[in-house]
Specification:
single chain, 159 residues, alpha+beta, 2 domains, 3-stranded antiparallel sheet, 6 helices, elongated, disordered N terminus
């Protein structure tokens, strides 16, 4: 039995079953409070895409991840025609190719701003400060400054 928590017999359950039999190439977007809806299949909570895959193919994805050709998983797409199985490496590659990764200031771990990065590159190019001095000034490591200056990180920031 498929159930979806509070809407056990509701809209999401019907949508997951329909998505498993989809004939359209359009995204089927499931309503979800956050980014990806959760469903229950055979008494187990799982991402709705896994439930759709299992219903459509009869195959438990096991340790594999259910990936999206449309790159709209974060929007709640559950169309079985957009799903395929892959591993974590493929998932990360897809995320990067679709430019869905948090980068720069959007990354929750970022200690610098794009403005800082531009200034660091400008000062380093002008020879106005050593990498160690820049590291002290901005509160990061010399290695971080080196990666910024050589454009190994913050590649999206251009002058």
């Amino acid at each position: 039995m498929l159930s979806t928590g509070r809407r056990a017999n509701g809209e999401l359950q019907a949508l997951v079953r329909a998505a498993a039999r989809a004939t359209t190439d359009e995204c089927i977007l499931a309503p979800c409070a956050h980014s990806r809806p959760t469903a229950r299949l055979r008494g187990e909570p799982m991402p709705a895409t896994r439930a759709v895959w299992w219903l459509a193919t009869g195959e438990d994805p096991g340790h594999r991840q259910v990936l999206h050709t449309c790159h709209r998983g974060d929007d709640g797409c559950i169309n079985v025609r957009h799903l395929y199985l892959g591993d974590h490496v493929q998932n990360m590659r897809d995320m990067t190719e679709a430019e869905r990764q948090a980068r720069g200031e959007e990354n929750g771990n970022a200690e610098l701003t794009e403005r800082d990065v531009r200034e660091i590159r400008r000062l380093a190019a002008a020879g106005a400060a050593s990498q160690r001095a820049l590291a002290r000034r901005y509160g990061v490591s010399q290695g971080t400054i080196s990666q910024i200056v050589t454009v190994k990180t913050w590649k999206h920031v251009v002058d």
